[in-house]
Amino acid sequence: MTDSTPAATPESVLTLRELAVSFGGNHVLRSVDLEVPTGFTGLVGPNGAGKTTVFNVVSGYVRAAGGDVRLGGETLIGVAPDAIARRGVGRTFQTPKLVAGISVVENVMLGLDGRAGPLAHLRAIAGSRRDSRPARERSLDLLERFGIVEYANEEASALPLATQKIVEVARALIASPRLVLLDEPAAGLGAEDVEAMVAPLVELAADNDLAVVIIEHDLALVSRLCPRLAVLHQGGVIALGTPAEVLAQPEVVDAYLGAGFAAVGP
Ligand SMILES: Nc1ncnc2c1ncn2[C@@H]1O[C@H](COP(=O)(O)OP(=O)(O)OP(=O)(O)O)[C@@H](O)[C@H]1O
């Protein structure tokens, strides 16, 4: 390699092109363009900007009105949520969606079938085809990594919020995804619980070359984790760059942060 070799642009794991979503007359996403490489990307913006809607389209729960979503080179438009999960997309929900009546270790295993969404409960009744010894061991291994293996046999939905959120992260990771979407993972958690979730997540993401997109209102956390931030506002990405670059942009201050905000750096 010579000095004149151009710096490699990181390969995009997830690509959104002119993505549009409407709910009736509410045009939530007008034209969202975003490339997500491996590593951590923060998706921020005001309440109601459409951040969760982006996750819902990528994971197949909401239909796009226009544009494209590509994982690697392949479109995810028209693909069912469980099939999208099996192609390598793991996700969590703003409010944990764990299946009641089954244990923590079993909830994590549901991730192997892509069963993380609203229908997971109904399907779980039939039992998971993936309830094999290796699946159980993989689930236990993840619970160990996240420091919650002691809860493995407890009913998941009875656990404190922080533990439920960590269980969801483990469920999102069990199928060895390429892309993980975390919807406000730290909301409602104390500093210690956030660390308990984040430290193993950062290690696992690095070990497995994952692309992780985090929606998070805690800007200190998102700035620490994410070398890239995208700001969503009025149906599109209005800023993209390092946290320091993005949080200093006047339009981001106006739209999201408020005039009293001063970026804390570096
Ligand atoms: N399934 C749906 N049906 C109708 N409207 C919806 C649906 N999902 C989202 N919306 C609307 O789309 C808009 C964007 O919602 P979304 O939850 O994506 O925003 P957000 O940026 O994630 O907000 P927050 O930061 O408050 O979680 C809101 O006006 C919301 O009411």
From TrEMBL:
Q: Which SUPFAM superfamilies match?
A: P-loop containing nucleoside triphosphate hydrolases
Transmembrane spans? none
Could you confirm whether the keyword Electron transport appears in this record?
no
**Organism this protein belongs to:** Sporichthya brevicatena
Q: Which GO terms describe its molecular function?
A: ATP binding
Tell me the protein's name. ABC transporter ATP-binding protein
The record, for InterPro entries, names: AAA+_ATPase, ABC_AA/LPS_Transport, ABC_transporter-like_ATP-bd, BCA_ABC_TP_C, P-loop_NTPase
Could you tell me which residue ranges the ABC transporter domain spans? 14-259
Keywords associated with the record: ATP-binding, Nucleotide-binding, Transport
Keyword Nucleotide-binding recorded = yes
Origin: domain of life: Bacteria
